Amino acid sequence: MTTAVLAPAAQQPITIPVREILPWAIFTVLLAIIAIYFVGAEQGATSVFQGMYIHEWVHDGRHLLGFPCH
Predict the structure, then answer these.
(1) Nearest 5°: CA angle at 22, between 21 and 25?
(2) Contact 48, 60 (CB under 8 A)
(3) CA triplet 51, 57, 60: central angle to 5 degrees?
(4) Which of 1, 16, 23, 61 fits a 20 to 30 Å CA distance from 39?
(5) Distance between CA atoms of residues 35 and 28, nearest Å
(6) Sorting pLDDT into bands at 50, 70 and 90, what band is 1?
(7) Per-domain residue ranges for the chain?
(8) With contact defined as beta carbons under 8 Å apart, do 69 and 55 qualify?
């Protein structure tokens, strides 16, 4: 008795149109820029918000990323 062995069908890569990726990419870049501003520049003369609340909130992240603050 013989058994036929079938080869698996070749899989095609999934294509994602740029129009579907572009809004998410822009959103991600915008969030990254905002996060870098708050972690890296929100203190002192460039401060947008009064007080040290934002600075204290991102203080550990600031040191983790290598931004000096003291």
Answers:
(1) 85
(2) no
(3) 125
(4) 23
(5) 10
(6) low
(7) 39-64
(8) yes
Q: What phi, psi does 64 have (nearest 5°)?
A: -60, -40
Question: And the tokens for 31?
Answer: 């969030």
Residues 58, 27, 48: CA angle, nearest 5 degrees: 40
Angstrom distance (rounded) from CA 63 to CA 66: 5
- What is the predicted pLDDT for the residue at 38? 80
Read off the pLDDT of each residue in 35-58 and give the average, rounded to a whole number. Answer: 77
Q: Give the confidence band of 24 by pLDDT, cuts at 50, 70, 90.
A: very high
Residue with tokens 């890296």: 40
